[in-house]
């Protein structure tokens, strides 16, 4: 059974002009998919819709064998869809420990889950008493991912993992996601601007252009032939040459 099936998904901010259309996406348990695409392609919109923070105007989302109610963050989390948003949404004035403990609220095995997170991110174990706002960008991202992992996601959605981070920091975090996917069977959808780094850890890439899937291909194929990625992006740039994409191909 697939971890996530998204069929004919359509969503956006205005009724008659969806900015994500016809999205069919299936992820197996333990699979890491990087969601790529130029600025404004609809990557964040798709993740927000999967996380129930936007209501879809068409299509369906299924996690395991359960249909997920659209537009309900609570239903999404209960189904196992957990989002790490691009702003990380940490409680900056609370300690690392408190941020993690809050995520254990209402969870059975909360303490064990917290311990597991510290095993994935030993850097956080040394910073438990420090306020989240005092952490480095990389540590904040680890905390945001750690907090999401405490929710025991079946599907982990990570938006702009590298936002504000040096590539070397991104390189240290990405393999941990791979390990999480392999050890826990968590499916991961990763939005990442450093395309070559994302392709190193992903099984598959999905390239969104103007809200629709323009290319879906095994990461190994795209690593061997990056021109396929460039081709999909360039198609978008021809139509939108002033957008100033910040993506690092
Ligand atoms: N809150 C909003 N209200 C109205 N339109 C929005 C809103 N957020 C995004 N959009 C528009 O929706 C479209 C898709 O944006 P989205 O942020 O999903 O793209 P993205 O692929 O994540 O881009 P980026 O890489 O720049 O973050 C864009 O045209 C954007 O201008």
TrEMBL record:
Residues 4-235 form the ABC transporter domain. Transmembrane segments: none annotated. The keyword DNA damage does not apply. Pfam families: ABC_tran. InterPro entries: AAA+_ATPase, ABC_transporter-like_ATP-bd, ABC_transporter-like_CS, BCAA_Transport_ATP-bd_LivF, P-loop_NTPase. It comes from the Bacteria. GO terms for molecular function: ATP binding; ATP hydrolysis activity; branched-chain amino acid transmembrane transporter activity. GO terms for biological process: L-amino acid transport. SMART domains: AAA. Keywords: Amino-acid transport, ATP-binding, Nucleotide-binding, Transport. Belongs to the ABC transporter superfamily. This is Amino acid/amide ABC transporter ATP-binding protein 2 (HAAT family). It comes from Williamsia limnetica.
């Amino acid at each position: 059974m697939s971890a996530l099936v998204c069929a004919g998904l359509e969503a956006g901010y205005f009724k008659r002009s969806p900015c994500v259309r016809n999205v069919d996406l299936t992820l197996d348990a333990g699979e890491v998919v990087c969601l790529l695409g130029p600025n404004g392609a609809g990557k964040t919109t798709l993740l927000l819709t999967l996380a129930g923070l936007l209501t879809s105007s068409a299509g369906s989302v299924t996690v395991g064998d359960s249909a997920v109610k659209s537009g309900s963050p609570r239903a999404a989390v209960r189904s196992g869809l957990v989002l790490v948003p691009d702003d990380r949404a940490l409680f900056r004035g609370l300690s690392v420990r408190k941020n993690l403990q809050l995520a254990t609220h209402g969870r059975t095995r909360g303490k064990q889950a917290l311990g597991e997170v510290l095993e994935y991110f030993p850097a956080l174990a040394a910073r438990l008493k420090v306020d989240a706002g005092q952490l480095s960008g990389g540590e904040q991202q680890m905390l945001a991912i750690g907090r999401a992992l405490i929710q025991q996601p079946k599907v982990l959605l990570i938006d702009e993992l590298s936002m504000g981070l040096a590539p070397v920091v991104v390189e240290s975090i990405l393999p941990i996601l791979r390990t999480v996917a392999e050890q826990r069977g968590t499916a991961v959808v990763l939005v990442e601007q450093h395309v070559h780094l994302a392709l190193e850890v992903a099984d598959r890439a999905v390239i969104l252009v103007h809200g629709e899937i323009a290319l879906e291909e095994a990461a190994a194929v795209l690593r061997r032939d990056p021109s396929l990625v460039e081709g999909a992006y360039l198609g978008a740039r021809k139509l939108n040459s002033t957008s100033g994409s910040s993506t690092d191909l």
